[in-house]
Amino acid sequence: MQGINNKWITTSGLSLFLFFLAVLGFVIWHFGDEIGLTGNDKKIFALFISTLSIISIRGLWLISKIYGIRREQRRSESQGLVPKKENRLQTEIITGFSSELSSHLYNRYGPFWRRKIRLLLVTGEPEQAEAIAPGLTGQHWLEGDHTVLIYGGRPSAEPDVALLTALKKLRRNRPLDGIIWPLTEEQSRQTAQLDKGWRELVNGSKRLGFQAPLYLWQVCDNGDYQTGRPLQSVGCLLPERCTPEQLAVMLEAQTLPLTEQGMSQLLADNRHDFLLRLAHTLAERGIAHWQTVLKPLLAGGAFSSLRLRGLMFSPPLAAVPEA
């Protein structure tokens, strides 16, 4: 529904008012003598009073119109037909980031920025999203090294229509290059929540009209004692239509390199045992665990359309202090 501030309506109303005022002035000026307006001062005063009356009537009509619109909005809110003010404000924040982000990317990468950057949607609980991208949930998006991270909220929530619309506006042909879901080991054992998350991701992709590849990212521990440990990608990228057997082989192949690198880091600093513990966990129970958890996403699974393409591991990243 268009409001009374519509530019076309405002311009048309002003033009009509000026036209009517010109006609009224012509009538008073040329035919005023017949109704007793014998002098120029009387004609000018009559025109002034007429104009003031028209403006007053128009003002009263606008006030009643605004009051009616606000009354209708309150009635709709009370019946749950429109979102509350707080939700509308959040929608404005989400949709506003599209223009802000596109301007930033244009200034940084030039007019062909859409071909030069990767757009990744991070969907997860705020704590886990902050663990892999500190500051993301508060700023809504982060950019660096030709990569843009956009926070998409909790995976179990219904698809955010405003966010999906903003993503399509940002880059229509390929709105996303990937979806990252950070979660803890405990969260990966909550099968009901995972199932709901898979379903909402499918629904969101349908609304978006595009299915981006999915990457799961396990946040392994609090990471306080891992400060100073060399940062590196830990995990594996999965092929198209990966089977549970292929996943097991690929994860098993990671254990020896992780053990070797973990021993090297542990010898350099005995606090940096993340890689060594990860290798041990995978060998003991992790491979079987992820085979079970990811079965719905793998070849033949109920949610194989989500295009699972990777499984990553890391401790939480520490926020970079402001200068």
Written account of the structure:
- This protein is an alpha/beta fold and 323 residues long.
- The protein folds into two domains: 7-78, no CATH class; 97-314, no CATH class.
- Helix content is 55%, strand content 11%.
- The chain has helices spanning 7-31, 40-78, 85-109, 126-132, 136-139, 161-170, 185-188, 191-208, 244-268, 274-294, and strands at residues 118-122, 141-144, 147-151, 178-183, 214-219, 234-237, 308-314.
- A seven-stranded mixed beta sheet has the order 2-3-1-4-5-7-6.
- Helix 1 packs antiparallel against helix 2, helix 3 (85-109) runs parallel beside helix 6 and helix 9 (244-268) packs antiparallel against helix 10.
- The longest helix has 39 residues, at 40-78.
- Keywords: Membrane, Transmembrane, Transmembrane helix.
Summarize the structure.
By secondary structure, the protein is of the alpha/beta class. The chain has two domains: 7-78, no CATH class; 97-314, no CATH class. The protein is 55% helix and 11% strand.
Could you say which overall geometry the principal axes of the C-alpha atoms support? elongated
Structural domain count: 2
Strand order of the largest sheet: 2-3-1-4-5-7-6
Count of individual beta strands: 7
Low-confidence stretches: 1-10, 81-93
Percent of sequence in beta strands: 5-15%
Global Rg: 31 Å
Arithmetic mean of pLDDT: 82
**Which structural class should the secondary elements be placed in?**
alpha/beta
Biggest beta sheet summary: 7 strands, mixed
Sequence of secondary-structure elements? HHHEHHEEHEHHEEHHE
What share of residues is helical? 55-70%
DSSP summary: helix tally: 10
Keywords: Membrane, Transmembrane, Transmembrane helix
Protein name: Putative membrane protein (Hypothetical ImcF-related protein)
Transmembrane segments: 12-32, 44-64
Organism: Escherichia coli M605
